[in-house]
Amino acid sequence: MSASSTIADLVNGLELARALIRCPSITPKNEGALDVLQGALETLGFTCHRMVFDGDDSAPVDNLYARLGDQAPNFCFAGHTDVVPVGDGWTTDPFSAEVMDGRLFGRGAADMKGAIAAFVAAVARKLAQGDKPPGSISLLITGDEEGDAVNGTKKVLGWLADRNERLDACIVGEPTNPTKLGEMIKIGRRGSLTAKLTVFGTQGHVAYPHLADNPIPRLLTMLRAITATPLDQGSEHFPGSTLAITTVDVGNTASNVIPGTAQAAFNIRFNDQHTGASLTEWLKTVLNESAEGADFDLNIRISGDAFLTPPGPLSDLVSGAIKDVLNVTPELSTTGGTSDARFIKDACPVCEFGMVGLSMHKADEHCAVADLENLTKIYLKVLDGYFAAAARA
Fold first, then answer.
1. pLDDT at 5
2. Quick check: 136 and 126 in contact, CB under 8 A?
3. Which has the least CB within 10 A, 82, 209, 280, 378?
4. What φ, ψ does residue 31 adopt, rounded to 5°?
5. Quick one: pLDDT at residue 3?
6. pLDDT reported for residue 4
7. Burial zone of 42 (CB within 10 Å; 0-12 exposed, 13-18 middle, 19+ buried)
8. What is the pLDDT, as a whole number, of residue 56?
9. Which of 341, 333, 387, 391 is nearest to 122 (CA)?
């Protein structure tokens, strides 16, 4: 995008999407993506705040919060400009943002620079119509959603709270649609707990097992104990929670040695019947009972609890906009992985709707140019509907 861009230049999101994709912002690097976005938003009259957060053992992350207006209510679009590594198998340059056969190719086209461009284009169209909303529009954009997610959205929300600045509703532009635009809105997400289990024994020669203490059988017994029965059968809006073992390893390169330790890692994706804390207690209880006195260590990381924005005004608003533009009634879903909505849900009602996710994180990631246009129309209708309701209130 040119530094001299006008509102008229921004009503079509394609060129902004291409400019964002051309920034190789592999998490947690910015590589100019937020500069491009800030320039576009300042053209529209947004006040922009840039903030860099870091930690003792994490890389610094550049973030952007921009707001148009200073009155309530404050409708927020949220997302991330960081992308996953490129990988192999591309037939185009992943950062050239080529348009071929009606599709925009590049890392981030689907997840989620295309949606960010649609955010901006929707606001540009509203302003081009001379329609100043009775409230505020904001964008909360981070650079570490695809990474550790510790120096981004969560800390920006803390910064907003310190300023007594409130978000009243939010759409996160994650690629929620499995195969075609309009199929699915996410109204919640499962929680995620990752654990590493290490069982300790005593190394020894396989010919003299009585002189060693083999940790592998006990590790297998403990894993059987936590996988023997389903965690639950699901709830009203969520599927059943799942526990998946992701690795079992002893690091043993010798066939005649009993190892001294054995490790396993597993992940639990859990619904609203559990919390990370309750699952931690369950794991400790079951593993202690099945360990039969064995020495073991359990390391747990909880990336977020399950959350739900119950079907209501926000999901109705987004569903109605999709129906108006595409004549499709979307499914309200809680499937899939985690997103930064797990942090935003503590601030305001939130749902997710963005591009088609079929190519995200893959080689030749892309979005249809027609989808970019329709997504812009949907976001504009959401803004129109939200502020029309606010004006009536």
1. 72
2. no
3. 209
4. 50, 35
5. 56
6. 56
7. middle
8. 63
9. 387
CATH dotted code for 7-189+306-392: 3.40.630.10
Task: Report the alpha-carbon distance of residue 380 to residue 234 in Å, rounded.
Answer: 35
pLDDT in tens, 22-33: 999 999 999 999
> Is 316 among the catalytic positions?
no
Catalytic residue among 82, 146, 272, 365: 82
Residue extents of the structural domains in the chain: 7-189+306-392, 191-304
Fold category of 191-304 in CATH:
Alpha-Beta Plaits (3.30.70)
- Note if 82 is an active site residue: yes
Residue at 142: amino acid letter: T
Between vectors from CA 320 to CA 66 and to CA 385, what angle results, nearest 5°? Answer: 45
Partners of 75 in beta bridges:
137, 169
Please state, in angstroms and rounded to a whole number, the distance separating the CA atoms of residues 325 and 60: 40
Residue of 62, 111, 144, 145 marked active site? 145
- Give the pair of three-digit tokens for residue 72: 């309530």
Q: What is the pLDDT of residues 110-163, one digit of tens each?
A: 999 999 999 999 999 999 998 888 999 999 999 999 988 889 999 999 999 999
The overall pTM is greater than 0.85: yes
Token digits of residue 389:
């309701």
Helices (H), the chain: 7-10, 14-21, 33-43, 114-128, 153-162, 216-227, 276-291, 313-326, 341-344, 369-392
SS (H, E, C) 138-179: EEEEECCCCCCCCCCHHHHHHHHHHCCCCCCEEEECCCCECC
- The list of the chain residues with pLDDT below 50 reads none
Torsion from C-alpha of 229, 234, 240, 241, nearest 10 degrees: -80
Q: What pLDDT shows up at residue 169?
A: 97
Q: Is the dihedral of CA 207, 213, 219, 221 positive or negative?
A: positive
Helices (H), 60-200: 114-128, 153-162
